[in-house]
Design a protein that fits this description.
Blueprint (H helix, E strand, L loop, with lengths): L1 H12 L6 E12 L9 E17 L4 E6 L8 E4 L13 H12 L8 E7 L9 H16 L6 H16 L6 H8 L4 E6 L4 E6 L5 E7 L11 H16 L12 H7 L6 H25 L3 H17 L6 H10 L5 E7 L6 E7 L3 H16 L4 E5 L6 E2 L1
Parallel strand pairs: 3-5
Antiparallel strand pairs: 1-2, 1-12, 2-5, 2-6, 3-4, 6-7, 8-10, 8-11, 9-10
Helix pairs in contact: 2-3, 2-4, 3-4, 3-5, 4-5, 6-8, 8-9, 10-11
Length: about 375
């Protein structure tokens, strides 16, 4: 891979100067969905699929960007001083957002650079291709310009880029796990205070299988921001009586005792999901530490049901994948993962049943939805690195 992308870079931009190759992962969240902007816990892991970059610093202020995933767009140009969001500039808004966020935070980026990207994450699948390109760009800048920035700060800058530049009110989870990923571990992250611990995922006889609905979704134009607003309003209603800063502070019992403060039935359902999902995530990590995969699987299924019924972010495609998964032999658990409205589901499957699982679920999905799902048997990888 390194030789292939470097060769493409040199054919576009020449081979003089110091050229370096980088990688940042994608991510999958095992449980803890739509909790990260509600002050709850999440439990994601980095993947070995992700985004590659080849980059070289320039002597002027010019930016030249190219993606092997959008070759038809050719080399796109800008400068480090022309960083306004432009919807017509397509994918380059993501790297530009990170340059903007870092400069806005006071980091000195006084020269341009040539950069080529190549992503192995399916675009629009909900495995964080956008956060991967943001963190990768930040990591490239850290290296090229010798910036003193740690990985948690880089994650926060990535979130700022997404919130303030791209216009998606995402939480911190995607950027955080991509910046801090560790092989064979998931991160148990408290999004309220960014305290985290690594939890070993030791699947001896099981595999993580990601199922892509192939229904494209864009977070900015989905109901993502609407769900976030509903939760914020529910929190304000609860705060009339309760001294809390986020929904993630509540137990199930505290929520049930006070839910009538939330006047709208939909807002009540959204808040219920945020509270219960947070508690499910805490229970899931405990189950994993005790090697209780059966309980982890049950919590994953409960998570999906809540995302379907209370948060209403699944849709026919994701529900079909999960329902068909749970009919298969050797399946421990399955749920949608990511923001929803398309994208992916994740399942844990006995290793010796994976081939049958993919065949059976794939056939049932095509019959019901009319087109193919894609399946990825994934490994847990590391955070950003120089290759």
């Amino acid at each position: 891979m390194k030789e292939k992308i470097r060769s493409k870079f040199e054919s576009l931009f020449g081979n003089e100067g110091e050229i370096k190759t980088y990688f940042a992962p994608g991510r999958v969240n095992l449980i803890g969905e739509h909790t990260d902007y509600n002050g709850g816990h999440v439990f994601p892991c980095a993947l070995t699929m992700g985004t590659y970059a080849v980059a070289r610093k320039r002597n002027d202020d010019k930016l030249r960007l190219y993606s092997m995933n959008f070759e038809e767009l050719g080399v796109l140009e800008s400068t480090i001083n022309e960083l306004k969001y432009n919807i017509e500039e397509n994918w380059i808004n993501y790297p530009k957002s990170m340059i903007w966020a870092m400069k806005d935070d006071g980091f000195i980026i006084d020269k341009g650079f040539d950069i080529l990207y190549y992503g192995t994450i399916p675009n629009g699948a909900g495995l964080s291709s956008s956060a991967s390109i943001e963190i990768l760009t930040g990591f490239v800048l850290k290296d090229l310009f010798k910036l003193d920035v740690d990985m948690t700060k880089l994650a926060l800058l990535g979130q700022k880029a997404e919130n303030k530049y791209v216009g998606v009110n995402c939480g911190i989870m995607d950027q955080f796990i991509i910046a801090n990923g560790k092989k064979d571990c998931a991160i148990f992250l408290d999004t309220a205070n960014l305290q985290y611990e690594y939890a070993k995922i030791l699947l001896k006889n099981e595999k993580i299988v990601i199922m892509n609905t192939n229904k494209k979704r864009g977070l900015g134009d989905s109901k993502y921001n609407e769900r976030r607003a509903e939760c914020e309003m529910a929190l304000q209603e609860l705060q009339q009586k309760l001294n809390i800063k986020s929904l993630g502070e509540l137990t199930e019992e505290e929520f049930e005792n006070n839910k009538n403060l939330i006047k709208d039935v939909n807002r009540q359902k959204r808040a219920k999901h945020a509270v219960y999902e947070n508690q499910r995530t805490i229970k899931a990590v405990k189950a994993l530490k005790e090697n209780n995969l059966e309980l982890l699987g049950k919590l994953m299924i409960a998570s999906h049901n809540s995302l379907r019924d209370d948060y209403e972010v699944t849709g026919k495609e994701l529900d079909t994948l999960v329902a068909e998964s749970l009919k298969q032999e050797g399946v421990i658990g399955a749920r949608m993962t990511g923001a929803g409205f398309g994208g992916c589901a994740v399942s844990i499957v006995k290793s010796n049943k994976v081939d049958d699982f993919i065949k059976n679920v794939g056939n049932a999905y095509k019959e019901k939805i009319g087109y193919d799902a894609d399946f990825y048997v994934v490994e847990i990888g590391e955070g950003p690195k120089v290759l």
